[in-house]
Amino acid sequence: VYVRDCQDCKLVVACQQFRTRDCRRLDVFLCCNTQPIIESSTGMKFACFQYNYPELEGQFDAAGLSVYNNNWSNIHDFTPAADVETWSLLPEDAKVSDYVPHPPCRYFPEMEVSADADSSVVPLTLGTRRKQSDESCLVVFYGGRQTRNNVKLYLREVRLKGSYQLVQTKEVKMTIEDAQRVFGNEHDMTNIQQGAVIGLEINGDNCIQVCNEIMGTLFKGRNKSELAFISKSNETAARNIDDFYNFVDMTMS
């Protein structure tokens, strides 16, 4: 998506690449699978894509877009200015409906559109905003037919806890050798090649214990080590997160 010579616009955009040039004062709720780029643009404000309607998830799949590879807040400015703020983030509680209202129901009575963050096809992430806690947990679901459904169920339980933030997500393919380098040899990697893995960074006080408890409760009776990798301690979690996202950056660059 290339936006050029526009001003005072409000957009909800999902794309592989996003770029602006010669733009002023755009508010953008964005899902972008690569790093968004602005050029000769000022007053740009960004937030995480929050939208849902029945066909949307299938349209993401058909377009080859991953809802978990969203770089909405990782903006690259080709033409930074020392004396002008070229871009910033919208408030954390910004709602799509306050910027891009739904079409009136009387004109589109059959349209089932929601901009609620809890039902959004793209998970709402904190992005590059400051984390609320010094403690984060890495949860990586291994590939398989139920992986995406398992991730949705897991994130729903995290949201219900109320005090935890989803910082970032990534979907990437890994070999057994990759996984052993990132997670260590002591973990069960037999399911790693059934499909792309989905990684989640969750932040909040005591989140490692809570994330492990959710995993145990949600998938009771199943071998959790076959489903996912999850940080076990605060001492190792930071390294887990760095190792996984460094691998992602290297793979996707």
From TrEMBL:
It comes from Paramuricea clavata (Red gorgonian). It is found in: Cell membrane. Pfam families: TBCC. One of its GO terms (cellular component) is periciliary membrane compartment. GO terms for biological process: post-Golgi vesicle-mediated transport. Keywords: Cell membrane, GTP-binding, GTPase activation, Lipoprotein, Membrane, Myristate, Nucleotide-binding, Palmitate. InterPro entries: C-CAP_CF_C-like, CAP/MinC_C, CARP_motif, NDK-like_dom_sf, Tubulin-bd_cofactor_C_dom, XRP2. Belongs to the TBCC family. It is a lipid-anchor. This is Protein XRP2.
